[in-house]
Amino acid sequence: NAGVTQTPKFQVLKTGQSMTLQCAQDMNHNSMYWYRQDPGMGLRLIYYSASEGTTDKGEVPNGYNVSRLNKREFSLRLESAAPSQTSVYFCASVRANTGELFFGEGSRLTVL
Amino acid sequence: LAKTTQPISMDSYEGQEVNITCSHNNIATNDYITWYQQFPSQGPRFIIQGYKTKVTNEVASLFIPADRKSSTLSLPRVSLSDTAVYYCLVGGYTGFQKLVFGTGTRLLVSP
Predict the structure, then answer these.
(1) How many CB atoms lie within 10 A of CB B17?
(2) Phi and psi at residue B76, in whole multiples of 5°?
(3) What phi, psi does B82 have (nearest 5°)?
(4) Measured between alpha carbons, how far apart are the two ends of chain B, in Å?
(5) Diameter of chain A measured on Cα atoms
(6) What are phi and psi for residue A83, nearest 5 degrees?
């Protein structure tokens, strides 16, 4: 039981490049979340998906797109990366009967 | 959407009890209060959750007054390894909603 798996763990991009962060969970959870965490700061919600086929904006959605491919997978795409998007990105899923969030190990993204 | 407020930082010494309070004045009737711990370079992990009164597990206690507008995480006899950031999160059981973290409390435990 791997929990929440994120790939890649590290990535360096140049300004204007695009990339997709992948997230998969094997706990059969309905809801999934993407957060970003800047150095020394708290977690900010980018997008979330309450269930397969639905996505909603969080606190800081600008510059990102998401896809809930199926119940297991929730990807985050940066279409044109900017230095302000340098951050650690965390994916999480929620156990429905307790509301407990389970987090992945994070994806550290640097945009030059 | 319940907004939470916590102290930015706290300092303690090994062996002391630490109490971290979170304010959530607009908590909804079906919201639960959950506390998470985060170490550097790791994702947050669940510590404890409650709805009202007191909850205790092997690592912490959670005190929630009757009006539920605040909650207090109590860490008994902290050690150096308890140095971390602690977040309280208010949200429903179902997960079908935005789950927004507050600023968190940075706890530093010294020898």
Answers:
(1) 11
(2) -80, 135
(3) -85, -5
(4) 39
(5) 42
(6) -55, -30
Helix (H) or strand (E) segment spanning residue A34 = strand A31-37
Q: Which residue of A has its CA nearest to B33?
A: A99
Report d(CA A102, CA B59) in Å as an integer.
18
Of B41, B89, B96, the CB nearest to A31: B96
Give the nearest chain B residue to A108 (CA atoms). Answer: B41
Return averaged pLDDT per consecutive 10 residues of chain A, 112 residues in all: 92 97 95 94 93 92 95 96 97 88 96 96
Give the position of tokens 């763990």: A9
Give the amino acid at B63: F
Tokens of B100: 């927004």
Q: Which regions of chain B does DSSP assign to beta strands (E)? A: 9-13, 18-23, 31-38, 45-50, 53-56, 61-64, 70-75, 84-92, 105-110
- pLDDT per position in chain B (111 positions), as tens? 668 999 999 999 999 999 999 999 989 888 899 999 999 989 999 999 999 989 999 999 999 999 999 999 999 999 999 999 999 999 876 656 778 888 899 999 999
Residues of A in contact with B100 (CB under 8 A): 45, 58-59
